[in-house]
Amino acid sequence: MNIEIITKSFQLDIYGFEDVATNKDYVGTAFKLSGKMWEIVKGNRLKNKGMNIWVYDTGDKIFAGVELENPTDSDNHGLQKREINLKKYAYYKHIGPYSLIKKAGQDMANELNKRGFEVTQPYIEIYGHWTGDEASSETALLMCLK
Predict the structure, then answer these.
(1) Contact 61, 21 (CB under 8 A)
(2) CATH code of 51's domain
């Protein structure tokens, strides 16, 4: 597993919605939040970078959002802003079916623990642009490190 340890600050502002994953249904909650977010983004023609970003946090919270090209466009549309600032994190690019992302994330956390790193929240998945071929889909996995 090719995991990069990055000590350069990673900053990202995303707009969307947060909720607690009922019964730990993270994927179902994230899809619901993404659908609500895309309805507002598309309905108001907000220019964006087109990639779903899911942020997993403490307390079973999940935030589903997108980067806006002009963040001031989000005013009065009901989107919540989430600021992400990671000082040290691990990066892994998952290539393949979305159904294998959970396993890739678990493998990544296990590998980091073996290397002596302490993984903390948030954990972030940045989904690449849809290609039509799920086998070549790219998803960036970022794990915050202490």
Answers:
(1) yes
(2) 3.20.80.10
